[in-house]
Amino acid sequence: MVEKRLNPEEIVKYFKDEFKIKIKDSRIEKRKAGAKKQEFISIWMKIDKGVFKKAVKHLCELTFPHLAVVSGNDMGKNIELIYHFSLYYGTRNEEVSLNISVDLPKSNPTIETLCDIIPGALVTEREKQEMLGVKIKGIPDSRRLFLPDDFPKGMYPWRKDETGPQKMVRNLHEVKK
Amino acid sequence: MAEATTKTTYQIPIGPIHPALKEPVMFEFEISGERIVDVDVSLGHIHRTVEWTGMQRNPIQILYLAERICGICSYCHPIAFARAVEHACDIEVPERAWYLRVIQGELERICSHMLWAGVAAHEIGFDTVLYLTWQMREKALDLTEYLTGNRVTKAITMIGGVRRDITKDMLPKIHETLNYFKDNFEKLRHIFLDDKTIKMRSQGCGILTYDDALKLCAVGPTTRASGVKKDSRVDQAYFAYPDLDIDYMTPDKLTGEVNGDVYDRIIVRLLEVKQSIDLIEQCIDKMPSGEIVSEPKIPKLLATFKKTSGEGIGKHEAPRGEVFHYVKFNGESEKPYTWKVRAPTYNNILPWIPMLKDEQIADIPIVAASTDPCMSCTNRVAIIHNKKRTILDKEELHRFSVEKTRRLMK
Fold first, then answer.
1. Could you say which DSSP state residue B92 is in?
2. What pTM was estimated for this model as a whole?
3. Largest Cα–Cα distance of chain B, in whole Å?
4. Which of A140, A173, B140, B346 has its CA at 20 to 30 Å from residue A85's CA atom?
């Protein structure tokens, strides 16, 4: 199967044509390496939560991506999840890193699972549930991954608000007066 | 069986401390007779909150923390982190440092694959090979110590370059070690690939199909042994890799076919040892002269981090596959706002399930070890049979595996 290779601008256009204003923000970054100044490209896109799953399906129609990991930031009112995909691996120096971010409001931090499209997403989705307190709708296995069973409920280690782990930290080096 | 049971399968938990693994992980096997019906993996026994700890430190301090994430990939984590920071802060790396970074990375790959080859041989009861491979690995460690001053935690990475140069007077020692590897490589290849017993234990065992490898997002030799061409060094242009002669190492390069079994994973790692020797030689030939770090003054670097508001990703092909770091700075502090570490084994957890299904209990150590998991060691296995609990310790499980080899040899 010969798949059509899109250049970075075309990849962004491919999504913008389909989802219009639901693609809120996009930027393309290039870093060069080697004597021939080969480029390594990373694309960053912010996508509306409502079309997220459709966007990933749309991406799979283009080429089957490798999901490296999902990372997340606590941005105050929102939780930002960033899905790091790699496209076009398998050909020398052609890989493109596509980072799709989604904002989830803390009042209702839910997002649909990707496990039905990319089964390999399970580990990282389970981790996001316990570390950031997001809810993955339709996840096939919602147990904790890294945290022990006796870790308090409602505490999320990567949160920077009152549900964060600050209270649990004991500074053993501090001297009590 | 004396008493009648309605349940035909029973469960074996393996781990959290297990001999086939270098770090704790917990397998729960559903067993029918000798056959594995289902597998469940649970993690987190040594979660040390490294990411959270890192977010309270500045990137220079994190370099040394990242180095301690893994004892074997003690170069890969800091270098992937450095790449992420360089991406976020737009820091250039001098050309000579590209080559030095490749040399360190490939040397680590040789050490790691040699260590793995010994462990794999040990799992099937071939301890003489363990001694042979670890003797060879010792030479690689000696070279690492010669180049960086340390055998394991090398402290060679700096953001914007590396900390130590390779000078002309160091070259003879490097060539001597590489030649030693080349001379002994054929012996190793012969033992692993032509030996009848190793073939019997590894061929057709622990199969991961191409589709599963792709869909489960497997990385490194595990995915390449299934024929998926995925190797960060070739996929993307970073360090000096685009200028070097390098290709995806898949088992069909040697045998002309891809089976995705344990044997194929042995082939891939052996080919990669050879490839790494070749890459180091190419680097030494092509390395230009010049600076090894773009900004030697640490306070200046810290000021750059403080001013930065942005995010970056860093990848490196570690011996076990792609290691991925994500860093975000918010422009208020030199400490990263977010730091996410994704080690290769994280992605190679799910592929264990199709690999182990339908295999025998005696194959657990070699199949589990074949992905070269970077977690920790099997101490005991408890078998719950008719509500009676019998504990198999490391020696016993190992004995099962050795006995299977002996049976096959008859």
1. -
2. 0.89
3. 77
4. A140
